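CHAIN AND CONFORMATION:
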Amino acid sequence: MKRIIIPVTAVAVLAIGGAWWLVLRIATRGEAQEVTQAATVDGKSAPNARTASPPGPVPTGIARPVPAPASIALRDEIRDTADLRAYYERVKDLPDAKGERSYRLAEAIFECSIFVDKPVEELSRRLTVVPAKGDAEAKRSRLLNTMVDRCKGFNGMGAGMLEITQQLHRRAEAAGYPAEIARSLRFEPAVSDLARADGVATQLLATNPDPEVLLQVYHYLDARNGSEWLRQFGNMDVLAWSFGWGLLQCDYGADCGPRSRPVMMVCILRGACDATRVEAAIFIQGGQATVNGADNLRIQLAQRIANQDWAGLGFIERSNK
């Protein structure tokens, strides 16, 4: 299989945005990063439709599962830890039969990659898209310092930090954690292998559509199709597509409140530090029309998952070019 090379701009967005939307784009420089894991679980072949379904009417009454309390507790425990390196050292050898801790910890450590090995002042300059003023600047500065302190245990590690995340991801994959299996699909399969890879993704959506699975399937589809295929949805904007998937993850129990990564990054990047929900972060990016469009798309995506309309989600025939 051919590896997908993700530009540094996209890597930075994945890291700073909580790895679930492509809204907070920043211009960064550097070398490309490779995604380094392959799928290991077979699934049923997805229908091989030639065209995507056009957006339909807004459905209602869709039942959406939410994570179990234990899962929420672990998610919040990792999110709220003040010293991520110390937390990693404390739990790295604990049993993790389901692979969830390994997956979540790997994602959290990866998010730290943007906050290490540079002085706070330099990071502040690099991450400022819209300058903050007054109280907003004070809040932004406190939050940025909190993130730097949280990640400082990984300063100076170089490739060792990447190796830690890779080891954690391998452990999660070996345990069969659904989101990790979905993440592994970011290897770009040959066209002849698409049915197998699509089958894994659609089986996960049908049986375990939790927020992390939705996130990773979204990234798989983005790598599989690129943005050009969205023309089949009436020239849908790629950002609108990512906004809709982000809100869908909120419906399925993702952390979308005041301590969620997208909300915090709106503060750090744009000095908008009073947002308490991701909908507010979207409003800051594009206004109410953008929020409404993302909300409409979110409901359509949920309906398509419920109806197993895989072509409507983007599992379409891809040319061998």
In short: The longest strand covers residues 5-6. The chain has one domain: 5-30+52-311. The radius of gyration is 19 Å.
